[in-house]
Amino acid sequence: MSENQQRVSFLDERPDVNAPWAAPADRFQHFAYNRVGDSGLLVSPIGLGFWYNFGDNTPFQQQRDIIRFAFERGINHFDLANQYGPPLGAAEENLGRVLRKDFAAYRHELVVTTKAGWPQWLGPNGRLGGKKHLLGSIDESLTRLGLEHVDIFYSHRYDPDTPVRETIEALDTIVRQGKAHYVGISSYSATRTQEAFAIARELGTPLLVSQSSYSLINRWIEDELLDVVSQFGGAAIGFTPLAQGLLADRYLQGFADVARAQPRPYISEEARSEESLRRLRGLAEIARERGQTLSQLAIAWTLRNPRVASTLVGVSTTEQLAENLLALNNLAFSEEELARIDAFAVHDGGVNPWKISSEL
After folding, report:
1. Which has the closest alpha carbon to 90: 54, 49, 136?
2. What are the domain boundaries of the chain?
3. pLDDT number for residue 348
């Protein structure tokens, strides 16, 4: 890759939103793409997450601008779930509108993923990992998205009351029906991941990804999970690399009175402690020496391990996404930098509400 490709600026002038839109021809020249495990699938190192900011509480044109901006600058990885909103399903519906309006010519360039497992509809089968829930959810998701298939469909969380085999058999059925090219699991423990991948190998199911929370202050996947996933030829995809926004410069002066575009109910008291603030400031100093913001350091750090194919960011503006993309200008870390980072980075900094699920 040339120096020109590596040191690109993403703050160029935006076109008139009322003019006909077409993606620029150089959209895939900004950075290298990562292979997902041993598969033939390639994804952008940063993916656009739709957990927040893509429900009906965000103006549609604002969402459309972000999605266009992402693709124009090389992001091909869009990550959703059936419940993302509000209301439930709205993020899929809104992306579906953008796909129809702007992306009809580019569908095969996109890696669109979605999930099911958290509560979606009333009744005992409206959540978790049973076959009835997963098979019903994929049909509803495809309808909302206006697609014939997604590229990856995930079991969104481990179901302690349903055999893992049934969950993986449901994912296998979804692939064989042509509704997903690959499947994945999300927030599974290393033990359950081992079980899931072993069953998938037996069935011939293209279980490819373990998607998990991963950041400088939430490093639990390094204990065993990454080894398990790579053992089966899969890859990890991380989410919340900014730890619900804690790994951003806005908190360096303290946690009081910080304005947010969307509330984050998952930042614990532990994560807002003086010790946490000390760690954030130490990491920010390392980032400054690297010519990065704290958030750029945080994103780059999650991608240092080749077993992590992509990290998902959530943004409310194109400016935030532009800043995040600049993390890709400096992905190299010296051994000295990594050792200094380890002095501040922790395995459990109080920003992992998925912890109980991942320990089962």
Report:
1. 54
2. 33-359
3. 82
